[in-house]
């Protein structure tokens, strides 16, 4: 099988620049290799879900020009593509880990775990790891609620091979026996991610650098389940002009905000594609198809990429001029600008009315 990549956002809010850049890099890589790009919705953290976010994410991605071969709306041979609809699959592999001895049931409740944190204990103290199989079976037969934890090997070095950052080594002593399956039958993020990437035959995982150290947990899971891991590709951080890491807490960093301000979709897309990737050439005004033809992992930088809005304005002007040279394209652009002006004026009038009363 050739290149298969995925963009897997959580529906917890708007699509922000970091997520949009990740989606675009996946799309460029798949397109350049005539591969497949999949959209998967990771909604296992039910408490953080925001109604309408899934639809908003898909709308923003469509606006940017990112096209998926498989998704919740399009379907596909590896579906369903929403994690909450795949619970039986995660439970199946959790049982395999239990039966194979790479996982164990943990009967510690919230009160005990909270007590450990209050005492300053770093991570879980592995109390239930010491239970014999007979003791664990007796607890389960009594109906005691339990989570499933990974039995992390002791005194080992976990090696992560990354296409951008090279070989990264993490001591297993720094990794706690993470929960894989919660008492309600829902998986945790890391477990669901590994199971889905394997079952969907993902060949390359492109995601933000903030997940690099967590990848050691994924490598342990791949090893425990007897699976070959995909090629990991971690993308450099996005930072503001002051060097601060972009996050959902910072205002004005959502894709929607740029759309509402009248930026052209292709300009925002090109701008994001050039954040942390040097293979786009010096000439601005390129389409996603042109960028995909030149995209390679070797052009991805390790250094943080600065989100410079002045650069975005310059890119937007280039694309704007290109539209003006085509009468049909110029007419479409004029209609979009008229709608943008109408929306802005309506908002301004409402603000004036509110101030008056």
Automatic annotation (TrEMBL):
What is this enzyme's EC?
A: 6.1.1.17, 6.1.1.24
What is the main EC category here? ligase
Domain Glutamyl/glutaminyl-tRNA synthetase class Ib catalytic, which positions?
3-312
- Single GO biological process annotation from the record: glutamyl-tRNA aminoacylation
Q: GO molecular-function annotation terms?
A: ATP binding; glutamate-tRNA ligase activity; glutamate-tRNA(Gln) ligase activity; zinc ion binding
Where does this protein chiefly localize? mitochondrion
In terms of Pfam families, this protein maps to:
tRNA-synt_1c
- TM spans (from-to): none
Q: Which reaction does it catalyse?
A: tRNA(Glu) + L-glutamate + ATP = L-glutamyl-tRNA(Glu) + AMP + diphosphate; tRNA(Gln) + L-glutamate + ATP = L-glutamyl-tRNA(Gln) + AMP + diphosphate; tRNA(Glx) + L-glutamate + ATP = L-glutamyl-tRNA(Glx) + AMP + diphosphate
Annotated localization: Mitochondrion
Q: Which UniProt keywords apply?
A: Aminoacyl-tRNA synthetase, ATP-binding, Ligase, Nucleotide-binding, Protein biosynthesis
A GO-annotated cellular component: mitochondrion
Listed PANTHER family = GLUTAMATE--TRNA LIGASE (PTHR43311), GLUTAMATE--TRNA LIGASE, MITOCHONDRIAL-RELATED (PTHR43311:SF2)
Similarity-based family = Belongs to the class-I aminoacyl-tRNA synthetase family. Glutamate--tRNA ligase type 1 subfamily.
- Name it: Nondiscriminating glutamyl-tRNA synthetase EARS2, mitochondrial
